[in-house]
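LAB NOTEBOOK - FOLDING QUEUE
OPERATOR: T.R.
BATCH SIZE: 2
PURPOSE: Compare the predicted C-alpha coordinate outputs for two unrelated chains run back to back under identical settings.
PRIORITY: normal
REVIEWER: second-year student, initials M.K.

ITEM 1
FIELD SEQUENCE / FIELD STRUCTURE:
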Amino acid sequence: MSSELRTIIIMGVSGSGKSVVGSLLAMQLDAVFEDGDDFHPASNKAKMSTGTPLTDDDRWPWYAVLRQRIEDMRHLTPVYILACSALKPIYREKLRAHDADSTLRFVLLDGSRDLITSRMAARQGHFMPLSLLESQLATLEPTPDLVRVSIDQTPEQVVADIRQKLAVA
Protein backbone atom coordinates (compact mmCIF):
# COMPACT_ATOMS: atom_id res chain seq x y z
CA MET A 1 0.00 0.00 0.00
CA SER A 2 1.17 3.50 -0.68
CA SER A 3 2.65 4.83 2.53
CA GLU A 4 0.55 7.96 2.08
CA LEU A 5 -2.88 6.31 1.65
CA ARG A 6 -4.75 7.13 4.85
CA THR A 7 -8.44 7.14 3.88
CA ILE A 8 -10.50 4.83 1.69
CA ILE A 9 -14.08 5.85 1.00
CA ILE A 10 -16.30 2.97 -0.06
CA MET A 11 -19.06 4.58 -2.10
CA GLY A 12 -22.11 3.72 -4.15
CA VAL A 13 -25.86 3.63 -4.03
CA SER A 14 -27.78 2.13 -1.14
CA GLY A 15 -27.71 -1.65 -1.29
CA SER A 16 -24.36 -1.88 -3.08
CA GLY A 17 -22.68 -3.42 -0.03
CA LYS A 18 -20.70 -0.48 1.36
CA SER A 19 -20.98 -1.56 5.01
CA VAL A 20 -20.24 -5.24 4.41
CA VAL A 21 -17.29 -4.54 2.12
CA GLY A 22 -15.94 -1.69 4.26
CA SER A 23 -16.06 -3.80 7.42
CA LEU A 24 -14.33 -6.74 5.76
CA LEU A 25 -11.66 -4.53 4.20
CA ALA A 26 -11.01 -2.88 7.56
CA MET A 27 -10.60 -6.27 9.25
CA GLN A 28 -8.08 -7.35 6.64
CA LEU A 29 -6.09 -4.09 6.84
CA ASP A 30 -6.35 -3.70 10.62
CA ALA A 31 -8.04 -0.36 9.90
CA VAL A 32 -10.96 1.51 11.46
CA PHE A 33 -14.26 1.33 9.60
CA GLU A 34 -17.25 3.60 10.08
CA ASP A 35 -20.51 3.95 8.20
CA GLY A 36 -21.34 7.50 7.13
CA ASP A 37 -25.02 6.76 7.73
CA ASP A 38 -24.27 6.68 11.47
CA PHE A 39 -23.42 10.38 11.29
CA HIS A 40 -26.70 11.48 9.67
CA PRO A 41 -28.82 13.65 11.93
CA ALA A 42 -32.15 12.13 12.95
CA SER A 43 -33.94 14.58 10.66
CA ASN A 44 -32.13 13.20 7.58
CA LYS A 45 -32.88 9.59 8.52
CA ALA A 46 -36.53 10.46 9.17
CA LYS A 47 -36.80 12.18 5.79
CA MET A 48 -35.27 9.26 3.92
CA SER A 49 -37.36 6.69 5.80
CA THR A 50 -40.50 8.37 4.41
CA GLY A 51 -39.14 7.96 0.87
CA THR A 52 -38.13 11.61 0.47
CA PRO A 53 -34.67 12.13 -1.05
CA LEU A 54 -32.32 14.48 0.76
CA THR A 55 -31.57 17.87 -0.75
CA ASP A 56 -28.08 19.31 -0.94
CA ASP A 57 -29.03 21.62 1.94
CA ASP A 58 -29.74 18.49 3.99
CA ARG A 59 -26.40 16.99 2.99
CA TRP A 60 -23.90 19.86 3.47
CA PRO A 61 -23.77 19.74 7.30
CA TRP A 62 -23.48 15.94 7.15
CA TYR A 63 -20.57 16.12 4.69
CA ALA A 64 -18.86 18.69 6.94
CA VAL A 65 -19.14 16.25 9.86
CA LEU A 66 -17.74 13.42 7.73
CA ARG A 67 -14.80 15.53 6.55
CA GLN A 68 -14.01 16.47 10.13
CA ARG A 69 -14.19 12.79 11.06
CA ILE A 70 -11.68 11.95 8.29
CA GLU A 71 -9.28 14.50 9.70
CA ASP A 72 -9.82 13.39 13.31
CA MET A 73 -9.19 9.74 12.42
CA ARG A 74 -5.79 10.59 10.95
CA HIS A 75 -4.54 10.94 14.53
CA LEU A 76 -6.10 7.66 15.65
CA THR A 77 -5.45 5.06 12.96
CA PRO A 78 -3.05 4.52 10.05
CA VAL A 79 -5.96 3.70 7.71
CA TYR A 80 -9.56 4.89 7.98
CA ILE A 81 -12.33 3.35 5.87
CA LEU A 82 -15.60 5.25 5.53
CA ALA A 83 -18.77 4.05 3.82
CA CYS A 84 -20.57 6.96 2.19
CA SER A 85 -22.74 7.16 -0.91
CA ALA A 86 -20.81 10.22 -2.26
CA LEU A 87 -22.81 10.03 -5.48
CA LYS A 88 -21.89 13.40 -7.03
CA PRO A 89 -18.44 14.87 -7.69
CA ILE A 90 -19.30 17.89 -5.51
CA TYR A 91 -19.98 15.55 -2.58
CA ARG A 92 -16.65 13.80 -3.12
CA GLU A 93 -14.94 17.20 -3.24
CA LYS A 94 -16.42 18.00 0.19
CA LEU A 95 -15.00 14.75 1.56
CA ARG A 96 -11.63 15.10 -0.21
CA ALA A 97 -11.00 18.77 0.71
CA HIS A 98 -7.26 19.25 0.13
CA ASP A 99 -6.28 15.56 0.09
CA ALA A 100 -4.49 14.13 -2.94
CA ASP A 101 -5.34 10.77 -4.56
CA SER A 102 -2.27 9.36 -2.83
CA THR A 103 -3.89 10.13 0.56
CA LEU A 104 -7.60 9.53 -0.04
CA ARG A 105 -9.21 7.21 -2.58
CA PHE A 106 -12.83 6.63 -3.58
CA VAL A 107 -13.90 3.05 -4.39
CA LEU A 108 -17.20 2.79 -6.27
CA LEU A 109 -19.12 -0.43 -5.67
CA ASP A 110 -20.67 -0.89 -9.08
CA GLY A 111 -23.60 -3.18 -9.85
CA SER A 112 -26.69 -3.56 -11.95
CA ARG A 113 -30.06 -2.10 -10.97
CA ASP A 114 -31.49 -5.63 -10.74
CA LEU A 115 -28.76 -6.90 -8.40
CA ILE A 116 -29.01 -3.87 -6.10
CA THR A 117 -32.82 -4.03 -6.10
CA SER A 118 -32.74 -7.66 -5.01
CA ARG A 119 -30.25 -6.88 -2.24
CA MET A 120 -32.29 -3.95 -0.95
CA ALA A 121 -35.50 -5.99 -1.02
CA ALA A 122 -33.84 -8.73 1.05
CA ARG A 123 -32.39 -6.59 3.84
CA GLN A 124 -34.26 -5.83 7.02
CA GLY A 125 -34.39 -2.82 9.30
CA HIS A 126 -32.60 -0.26 7.11
CA PHE A 127 -34.00 3.27 7.04
CA MET A 128 -33.45 3.64 3.28
CA PRO A 129 -36.49 2.33 1.37
CA LEU A 130 -36.25 0.63 -1.99
CA SER A 131 -38.28 3.51 -3.44
CA LEU A 132 -35.23 5.81 -3.21
CA LEU A 133 -32.98 3.58 -5.33
CA GLU A 134 -34.09 5.22 -8.60
CA SER A 135 -33.23 8.71 -7.32
CA GLN A 136 -29.83 7.44 -6.15
CA LEU A 137 -29.09 5.81 -9.50
CA ALA A 138 -30.13 9.04 -11.26
CA THR A 139 -27.87 11.07 -8.96
CA LEU A 140 -24.78 8.86 -9.33
CA GLU A 141 -22.11 10.65 -11.40
CA PRO A 142 -19.04 8.45 -11.82
CA THR A 143 -15.76 10.21 -12.61
CA PRO A 144 -12.50 8.78 -14.02
CA ASP A 145 -10.69 9.07 -10.65
CA LEU A 146 -12.92 6.44 -9.01
CA VAL A 147 -11.66 2.91 -8.43
CA ARG A 148 -14.58 0.89 -9.80
CA VAL A 149 -15.23 -2.60 -8.46
CA SER A 150 -18.00 -4.94 -9.56
CA ILE A 151 -20.28 -6.16 -6.78
CA ASP A 152 -21.38 -9.15 -8.87
CA GLN A 153 -19.09 -11.37 -6.78
CA THR A 154 -18.72 -12.37 -3.14
CA PRO A 155 -17.78 -9.71 -0.58
CA GLU A 156 -14.41 -11.45 -0.17
CA GLN A 157 -13.81 -11.21 -3.92
CA VAL A 158 -14.86 -7.54 -3.90
CA VAL A 159 -12.33 -6.83 -1.13
CA ALA A 160 -9.59 -8.75 -2.96
CA ASP A 161 -10.36 -6.69 -6.08
CA ILE A 162 -10.16 -3.45 -4.07
CA ARG A 163 -6.86 -4.47 -2.49
CA GLN A 164 -5.40 -5.36 -5.88
CA LYS A 165 -6.56 -2.11 -7.52
CA LEU A 166 -5.30 0.03 -4.62
CA ALA A 167 -2.10 -2.05 -4.31
CA VAL A 168 -2.93 -2.71 -0.66
CA ALA A 169 -0.93 -5.69 0.60
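ITEM 2
FIELD SEQUENCE / FIELD STRUCTURE:
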Amino acid sequence: MQIIKDKQIIDDSWNYISDDAELKAGNISVSLARWNKDKQQLLHHDGKVGVRLEPSDSVDNIAEDLKKIELIELNFPAFADGRAFSHAWLLRNRYQYTGEIRATGHYMPDQVFYLSRVGINAFSLEKTEDLPAALSTLNDFTVIYQKSTN
Protein backbone atom coordinates (compact mmCIF):
# COMPACT_ATOMS: atom_id res chain seq x y z
CA MET A 1 0.00 0.00 0.00
CA GLN A 2 1.13 3.55 -0.63
CA ILE A 3 0.70 6.75 1.35
CA ILE A 4 1.66 10.40 1.10
CA LYS A 5 4.48 11.38 3.45
CA ASP A 6 6.31 14.69 3.43
CA LYS A 7 4.73 15.62 0.07
CA GLN A 8 5.76 12.39 -1.68
CA ILE A 9 3.96 9.17 -2.51
CA ILE A 10 5.85 6.32 -0.84
CA ASP A 11 5.34 2.68 0.12
CA ASP A 12 3.91 2.24 3.62
CA SER A 13 6.12 0.21 5.95
CA TRP A 14 3.72 0.24 8.93
CA ASN A 15 1.02 -2.23 10.00
CA TYR A 16 -1.77 -1.53 12.44
CA ILE A 17 -2.15 -4.36 14.98
CA SER A 18 -5.62 -4.64 16.52
CA ASP A 19 -5.96 -5.07 20.27
CA ASP A 20 -6.70 -8.79 20.04
CA ALA A 21 -4.01 -9.65 17.45
CA GLU A 22 -0.58 -11.05 18.20
CA LEU A 23 2.33 -8.63 17.83
CA LYS A 24 4.60 -9.25 14.86
CA ALA A 25 8.04 -7.96 13.91
CA GLY A 26 8.39 -4.80 11.87
CA ASN A 27 6.96 -1.32 12.18
CA ILE A 28 3.63 -1.51 13.96
CA SER A 29 1.03 0.83 15.37
CA VAL A 30 -1.36 -0.03 18.17
CA SER A 31 -4.31 1.60 19.88
CA LEU A 32 -3.77 3.90 22.85
CA ALA A 33 -5.40 1.25 25.08
CA ARG A 34 -2.93 -1.40 23.91
CA TRP A 35 -0.01 1.02 24.30
CA ASN A 36 -1.01 1.67 27.89
CA LYS A 37 -1.55 -2.04 28.59
CA ASP A 38 1.55 -3.45 26.84
CA LYS A 39 3.94 -0.48 26.94
CA GLN A 40 6.90 -2.34 28.42
CA GLN A 41 6.62 -5.13 25.85
CA LEU A 42 6.20 -2.61 23.02
CA LEU A 43 9.28 -0.65 24.09
CA HIS A 44 11.34 -3.79 23.41
CA HIS A 45 9.57 -4.58 20.12
CA ASP A 46 11.63 -5.61 17.09
CA GLY A 47 10.75 -2.60 14.93
CA LYS A 48 9.37 0.89 15.30
CA VAL A 49 6.21 1.47 17.33
CA GLY A 50 3.38 3.92 16.73
CA VAL A 51 0.11 4.70 18.47
CA ARG A 52 -3.29 5.23 16.85
CA LEU A 53 -5.47 7.84 18.51
CA GLU A 54 -9.22 7.86 18.15
CA PRO A 55 -11.13 11.15 18.37
CA SER A 56 -12.23 10.35 21.94
CA ASP A 57 -8.64 9.71 23.10
CA SER A 58 -6.75 12.46 24.88
CA VAL A 59 -3.35 13.52 23.57
CA ASP A 60 -2.43 14.27 27.19
CA ASN A 61 -2.47 10.50 27.88
CA ILE A 62 0.67 9.95 25.76
CA ALA A 63 2.47 13.24 26.34
CA GLU A 64 5.17 11.69 28.54
CA ASP A 65 5.76 8.86 26.04
CA LEU A 66 6.07 10.88 22.83
CA LYS A 67 9.86 10.52 22.65
CA LYS A 68 9.38 6.73 22.50
CA ILE A 69 6.73 6.79 19.76
CA GLU A 70 7.78 7.22 16.13
CA LEU A 71 4.33 7.45 14.56
CA ILE A 72 1.04 8.90 15.74
CA GLU A 73 -1.92 7.85 13.62
CA LEU A 74 -4.97 10.06 13.93
CA ASN A 75 -8.02 8.06 12.96
CA PHE A 76 -11.04 9.66 11.32
CA PRO A 77 -13.85 7.14 11.91
CA ALA A 78 -16.36 9.51 10.29
CA PHE A 79 -15.93 12.34 7.81
CA ALA A 80 -17.74 14.81 10.07
CA ASP A 81 -15.54 14.22 13.13
CA GLY A 82 -12.76 16.82 13.14
CA ARG A 83 -11.25 16.25 16.58
CA ALA A 84 -8.11 14.84 14.96
CA PHE A 85 -7.35 18.36 13.68
CA SER A 86 -7.06 19.44 17.31
CA HIS A 87 -5.01 16.37 18.24
CA ALA A 88 -2.47 17.19 15.51
CA TRP A 89 -2.22 20.82 16.54
CA LEU A 90 -1.67 19.86 20.19
CA LEU A 91 0.98 17.30 19.29
CA ARG A 92 2.98 19.81 17.23
CA ASN A 93 2.47 22.96 19.29
CA ARG A 94 1.92 22.02 22.91
CA TYR A 95 4.10 18.91 22.99
CA GLN A 96 6.59 19.74 20.18
CA TYR A 97 6.21 16.25 18.71
CA THR A 98 8.53 15.99 15.70
CA GLY A 99 7.73 12.46 14.53
CA GLU A 100 5.31 11.38 11.84
CA ILE A 101 1.66 12.27 12.32
CA ARG A 102 -0.54 10.34 9.92
CA ALA A 103 -4.19 10.85 9.04
CA THR A 104 -6.05 7.59 8.51
CA GLY A 105 -9.69 6.62 8.12
CA HIS A 106 -12.59 8.53 6.56
CA TYR A 107 -11.54 11.95 5.38
CA MET A 108 -11.60 13.52 1.95
CA PRO A 109 -8.57 14.21 -0.24
CA ASP A 110 -9.72 17.85 -0.28
CA GLN A 111 -8.92 18.06 3.44
CA VAL A 112 -5.25 17.11 3.06
CA PHE A 113 -4.08 20.73 2.71
CA TYR A 114 -5.91 21.77 5.89
CA LEU A 115 -4.69 18.70 7.77
CA SER A 116 -1.12 19.59 6.83
CA ARG A 117 -1.62 23.08 8.24
CA VAL A 118 -2.20 21.65 11.73
CA GLY A 119 0.83 19.39 11.60
CA ILE A 120 -0.13 16.17 9.83
CA ASN A 121 2.68 15.17 7.47
CA ALA A 122 1.47 11.75 6.25
CA PHE A 123 -1.81 10.62 4.74
CA SER A 124 -3.22 7.14 4.34
CA LEU A 125 -6.22 7.33 2.04
CA GLU A 126 -8.94 4.73 1.67
CA LYS A 127 -8.48 4.68 -2.11
CA THR A 128 -4.91 4.68 -3.37
CA GLU A 129 -6.12 6.08 -6.69
CA ASP A 130 -6.88 9.32 -4.77
CA LEU A 131 -3.20 9.79 -3.80
CA PRO A 132 -2.15 11.97 -6.77
CA ALA A 133 -5.16 14.28 -6.36
CA ALA A 134 -4.60 14.56 -2.60
CA LEU A 135 -0.92 15.25 -3.14
CA SER A 136 -1.74 18.08 -5.54
CA THR A 137 -3.95 19.77 -2.92
CA LEU A 138 -0.87 20.40 -0.77
CA ASN A 139 0.03 23.13 -3.27
CA ASP A 140 -3.46 24.62 -3.66
CA PHE A 141 -2.69 27.92 -1.94
CA THR A 142 0.37 30.11 -2.29
CA VAL A 143 -0.74 32.88 0.08
CA ILE A 144 -1.77 31.99 3.62
CA TYR A 145 -3.11 34.41 6.23
CA GLN A 146 -3.22 32.19 9.31
CA LYS A 147 -0.28 30.78 11.23
CA SER A 148 0.52 27.13 10.67
CA THR A 149 2.62 24.41 12.27
CA ASN A 150 4.65 23.96 9.09
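REVIEWER COMMENT (ITEM 2): The chain has a mean pLDDT of 91.
FOLLOW-UP: none requested
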